[in-house]
Amino acid sequence: MASIESEVKQEKFQSEFQKAAVNILFTGSWLHNLNATFLKTFDVTPEQFNVLRILRGSHPKPMMLADITCRMIDKNSNATRLVEKLRLKGLVKREICKNNRRQVDISVTDKGLSLLAKIDRASDTWQSTLKNLTKAETQQMNFLLDKLRG
Amino acid sequence: MASIESEVKQEKFQSEFQKAAVNILFTGSWLHNLNATFLKTFDVTPEQFNVLRILRGSHPKPMMLADITCRMIDKNSNATRLVEKLRLKGLVKREICKNNRRQVDISVTDKGLSLLAKIDRASDTWQSTLKNLTKAETQQMNFLLDKLRG
DNA sequence: ATACAATAGTTGTAGATACAATTAAATCCC
DNA sequence: GGGATTTAATTGTATCTACAACTATTGTAT
Q: Which residues contact B142 (CB under 8 A, 6 or more apart)?
């Protein structure tokens, strides 16, 4: 097994806590890169894929931008521009909300839904990367990450 | 405690594994943002700080660029340009290696070392964020993350 | 009603990332 | 020695991120 020490070639950390911080950042980056490479064959970025999934969760009810933003993994990526990218690919639809002309109703299109289905079918392959952990260990990991963030 | 379900407002995931993937990405991004905000007061980015720490680990022996890159958390950030940023701030020194003129010897300066010391002293505050976990839990987390990456 | 504040989203932009192409030096090997 | 290969780093560039400033619309208080 590749310990974080050997991954970043550092023999010892100041504390177990600092080691955990580096470990989470490192593993997050590693997972992000795996995911990005996998999704590239479908011509979407990880955060674009994430937004499509979010919209599928609400479908057929559209969502406003702010609701999408607060569900995103990376709050910093600009939802306006991200959604515009998806719209140009025909994966989502944008409409000014009738009741409140400040907000826009965004929903996933049929094309977007079928892309999601295609990605879901293919994702078993790359998700097997995570199968190094048993289900009990995965649950424990989820528990610890939630507890960490307080 | 804020579960990943409530953080990304998703009631249920396809599997415990998918939930763990989202949880790691989300927690990584959360930790990165905390770290970036903390380090901004010292006018360095997280990856710049990371490179300074790497160089301190080797000090006073200089390191070549490739060795720095393979120890970095995010392998994608461009080490050439990152080191150049640090050099402009006077935190590192660059010298063409005499024996092999293809490579550059990079080392942390006194100014860099004292900045690191300053950051270390201040970092107790933000690292207390991680104190939501006990030492045993932190060790367990490190074990699981290492196992996950195989 | 009118001014003020709050909400929703857009735009601007400096700097960073991702990835490919390029330069330059050393090594190989006939 | 001289061409091919490998190694080390730099440069180019399109896209993305971080963050602030801005526009437009709605809500509120007097």
A: A4, A16, A19, A20, A23
3-state secondary structure of A107: strand
What single-letter amino acid sits at A84?
Answer: E
Residue A121: CB atoms within 10 Å: 9
Q: Residue ranges of the alpha helices (H) in chain A? A: 4-7, 16-40, 46-58, 65-71, 79-88, 110-127, 135-149
CB spacing of A16 vs B135 below 8 angstroms: yes
- As a whole number, mean pLDDT of residues A73-82 equals 86
- How many Å from the N-terminal Cα to the C-terminal Cα in chain A? 29
pLDDT at A1: 64
SS3 at position B148: helix
With beta carbons less than 8 A apart as the criterion, state whether A142 and B16 touch: yes
The distance (Å) linking the CA of A67 with the C1' of D27 is 20
| Prediction pTM value | 0.90
Of A1, A10, A137, the CB nearest to B150: A1
Cα–Cα distance measured from residue A137 to residue A2, given in angstroms and rounded to the nearest whole number: 17
First to last CA, chain B: 29
Model confidence at B71: pLDDT above 90: no
List the 79-118 stretch of B: residues with Cβ below 8 A of A. none
